[in-house]
Amino acid sequence: MATQELQEQPRRNNPESRRGPGSMSPGISYDLSASAASAVRRTTGLLRRHKLLIGTVIVVGTGLAALVAFRMTPLYTAETLIMVEHRKNTVLNFEGVVSDMTPDISALQSEVAILKSPAFAEKVVAKLKLMNDPEFNASLRPPPPGWVSALNPRNWIPDSWKASSGVPLSPEEIERNHLTSVVNAVLDNTSVRPQGRSYVIAVSFDSEDPRKSSLIANTMADLYLVDQLDEKFKASKRATQWLEERLTDLRKEAQTSGDAVEKYRTQHGLTTSSNNESTVVGQQLSQLNADYILARTKRQEAETKLRDVTAMANSPRGASAVGDVLGSPLIQALREREVDLQRQIAEATNRYGAKHPMLQALQSQLRDLQGQIKADVGKIVSNLSNEVELAKGREQGLKASLDQVEAKQNEQQQATVGLRTLERDATTAQSMYEALLTRSQQIATQNDMRQPDARIVSEASIPLDPSQPNRKLILLLALVASGTLGVLLAMLRERAESGFRSPHQFETATGVRSLGIVPRIPRFGGSPAAYVVDKPISAFAESMQNLRTSLLLANPDGRHRVILFSSSVPGEGKSSVAAAFARTCANAGQRTILVDCDLRRKCLHEMLGMSNNRGLAEVLAGTATLEEVIQVDPRTGLHVIPAGHGRTLPQDTLGSSGMHQLLSRLSVNYDRIVLDSPPVLAVSEGKLLAALADQTVFIVRWGMTKRGTAMAGLKEVIEAGGEVVGVLFSQVDTRRHAQYEFPDSGRYHGYRRYYAN
């Protein structure tokens, strides 16, 4: 039931919990300027609260940075500028064996990598004999002072741990390791970078000696140009040697290929004619082809003529048609004779009649003449037939010869494929030999004209002022970094605070009302019980008066007289507040008695300067009367019952009926009965007293008591039946409390001119 009330009290005491679900909470601000101002105030308060921590971190961090900066050895930087040539000045338009560098980004980065390479740095070390320079060779430096050596973390490692794996090293390997360390030291002090989007590379070197830095930077530039020429001459030499070897091989290959071509041509009869345009077989084939075409044409003409003559001979016209076609003089003469005889026969028939002897003689002559013509035509046809046969025979002979020549040519054509392959191989070998011979002559000419692809634009001069360390920048960065670290530590410290910083926080978390805060008294102000009397108008005394007023308002009828001061754990100032409050009430004229109920840790009598011969334990045990143990404070008239020296268990003593009767008896004679209780989480008698008291004031130490602990102690008091009238924060640093953004921040400290502390 008590736990339920503890959970419900925040809702009852919080007016926002009674608002409807649609209403706007008045605690939420939508004013951005107010939110920003609040954030600024919170940040300022954080810085003010932890200014000692922040200031310490800044002073220590900046001091260490200043110590380191002023102990650093100054370094001087010399810089030389090298421009990669992007214009090609070539006398001959030949493509280089080692092609001139194209100055694009990748090429510039490659040159930067060369300048930063260990191999190049090793050339610089050898050139300037830097192995003998203590600045780069650590083995030549004198040992540092003892305190400096002690601060070096490397010296904290035992020598046995730093021993090598046990692999023995030869003197050459040891010397090589020393050289590598010197080369690495040179590279650490070397900076190579392109200058923007130009073709210029800046080479800078840092050294303790300004002259040395200038010398090394210029030496790097010179060695870089020499290295370029060296590489080009080496490449040309390698190319020349390779070309000479290749020329020898190609010369042999070209000669072998040419011999193979001639041998193959001879074996396959692929000799050409005098004009070197075709082979003998090709010419024969061409001539036979022409003769065959001519013979076939003549045979076709003879056949056509024979066919026409035969057809005409069998036609009605007969010999006359043949004579007209052939144009034979004999046939034509016989034809004329036949026509003349026919004319004579016609005349004789008209003159003499059909039976005249002359007519018969003429007809006999005509018949003889026609027979002769027919015999002559037959001879002509027979001759034409012979000509056709002769033409066919000639054509067939030419065809056979042509087929033979074609077969031979096909064989030669197949052989020509292999010949062409051999000829191409021979031509290729000859071309490669001639090209490499020409290239070799060009390279021999170019070797005398080779120039580096870069030039020195500006040599490094001797620097007059050190480039590092930049002490001002180091101090500024250290100041900013230490300030940032201090603020971060302050924020972490603020986050790590587990206690309540304001009664408002406690009231929000538990719903228990606040009875105010009790300022922490000055360091040499004495005990709180004495301070409240010695400084009656101090902030501490005012907090007691405020507590007294709050309790009077909570008990207007005066029925609740027994007031218990309780806390969760020891050290929260519960006894001091109880004694100071009792003295305040007694000094105000109220009949007040202070009872020390902490039978385990008896301290009230010491605060008030009284004895503890007999007290509460003896009264409850019946070995002393109440009047015998009550002591009177001479300064305020406060009555005090010390704890005494009981032999029974405290929980049995305080939980007895005698304790209840004692409180009832005291309530008759006193206006205020102040009980100092032991912590409720430490021992159990605190909960017994909470059940007997009319009002309980719960004490929480400001910023120290953990929140969970304070809430657990409050829960124990409520579950025991105690009537918690409110919570009181003790030992409050009013100056730091004023730096928080709480409703009661600034109390007492903001009005400190009203108090005489």
From TrEMBL:
Compositional bias (Basic and acidic residues): 8-19
A Pfam family the protein falls into: GNVR
GO annotations of cellular component type: plasma membrane
Transmembrane segments: 52-70
Lipid bilayer topology: Multi-pass membrane protein
Annotated catalysed reactions: L-tyrosyl-[protein] + ATP = O-phospho-L-tyrosyl-[protein] + ADP + H(+)
Subcellular location: Cell inner membrane
Record InterPro entries: AAA_dom, Bact_polysacc_biosynth/exp, GNVR, LPS_length_determ_N, P-loop_NTPase, Wzc-like_C
Domain Polysaccharide chain length determinant N-terminal: 45-128
Enzymatic class: transferase
UniProt region (Disordered), positions on chain: 1-26
UniProt keyword list: ATP-binding, Cell inner membrane, Cell membrane, Kinase, Membrane, Nucleotide-binding, Transferase, Transmembrane, Transmembrane helix, Tyrosine-protein kinase
GO MF annotation, one: protein tyrosine kinase activity
Every Tyrosine-protein kinase G-rich domain range: 413-494
Signal sequence region: none
Start and end residues of each AAA domain: 561-718
Keyword match Cell membrane: yes
PANTHER family: FERRIC ENTEROBACTIN TRANSPORT PROTEIN FEPE, TYROSINE-PROTEIN KINASE
Protein name: non-specific protein-tyrosine kinase
Record organism: Azospirillum palustre
Lineage: Bacteria, Pseudomonadati, Pseudomonadota, Alphaproteobacteria, Rhodospirillales
